[in-house]
């Protein structure tokens, strides 16, 4: 009997405040979708860092005859064989170096043609204009400064380049987008909480006569509050359900059926990462409105 009464009161409350309940559902859905999306983006950035940082190298570009006027270390002309041998042997003695690969100017020219063959500049380049280089794989990519300090000012070295910096700007952009999404999510969450509190206020005010009678006949505070808390929890759970639909749809349509085909250099996260976030989204969608309603009812159901 008590359960039937509570369920009937929940139905009455949802029907009376249908517009505000719908607004709560939409706000919770958008805020939790942004929350889940932010978690997934953070995991994606972490995966990309692990993938790319494991592949990037430190490059020591050597002087050629065309760098004499443009690079401070190349005023004496192209790098000599003795200088190359000295650099190679010193690199092999460093315990932070995992592997060293020497790239000739012909190999550099070939790689450039493969990557930028359609560029107008590629037609005017010749192999002797390309720089020889040492491609260095570090055991710890963060130790680039050791290589830079040791070789940047060395005669015959035109430049020491850390490829990690080339992808660092991309990761900074992705992290900035993630923080922006978290900011919007926080704003939407505040709006959703305010809507929940206002919905509870209106519902409690419209049923103040019934709750007053229940208090007079000896009903407990928890029993009186239960229908209002359940209303908020159901609205939040529906919003969380829609958020899960948005996350699953984003993974299926945006990632799997579009980005994977358009961007093949990124190892995108899979369904396991998405499905792992759904229970958290549902739990927050259920508990957050219920707690907000419980706090609001402590004041507005005093008889």
TrEMBL record:
<keyword id="KW-1003">Cell membrane</keyword>
<dbReference type="Pfam" id="PF02687">
    <property type="entry name" value="FtsX"/>
</dbReference>
<feature type="transmembrane region" description="Helical">
    <location>
        <begin position="179"/>
        <end position="200"/>
    </location>
</feature>
<keyword id="KW-0812">Transmembrane</keyword>
<keyword id="KW-0131">Cell cycle</keyword>
<feature type="domain" description="ABC3 transporter permease C-terminal">
    <location>
        <begin position="184"/>
        <end position="301"/>
    </location>
</feature>
<comment type="function">
    <text>Part of the ABC transporter FtsEX involved in cellular division.</text>
</comment>
<keyword id="KW-0132">Cell division</keyword>
<dbReference type="InterPro" id="IPR040690">
    <property type="entry name" value="FtsX_ECD"/>
</dbReference>
<keyword id="KW-1133">Transmembrane helix</keyword>
<feature type="transmembrane region" description="Helical">
    <location>
        <begin position="21"/>
        <end position="41"/>
    </location>
</feature>
<dbReference type="Pfam" id="PF18075">
    <property type="entry name" value="FtsX_ECD"/>
</dbReference>
<feature type="transmembrane region" description="Helical">
    <location>
        <begin position="274"/>
        <end position="297"/>
    </location>
</feature>
<dbReference type="InterPro" id="IPR003838">
    <property type="entry name" value="ABC3_permease_C"/>
</dbReference>
<comment type="similarity">
    <text>Belongs to the ABC-4 integral membrane protein family. FtsX subfamily.</text>
</comment>
<feature type="domain" description="FtsX extracellular">
    <location>
        <begin position="56"/>
        <end position="160"/>
    </location>
</feature>
<keyword id="KW-0472">Membrane</keyword>
<protein>
    <recommendedName>
        <fullName>Cell division protein FtsX</fullName>
    </recommendedName>
</protein>
<dbReference type="InterPro" id="IPR004513">
    <property type="entry name" value="FtsX"/>
</dbReference>
<feature type="transmembrane region" description="Helical">
    <location>
        <begin position="232"/>
        <end position="254"/>
    </location>
</feature>
<dbReference type="InterPro" id="IPR047929">
    <property type="entry name" value="FtsX_actino"/>
</dbReference>
<comment type="subunit">
    <text>Forms a membrane-associated complex with FtsE.</text>
</comment>
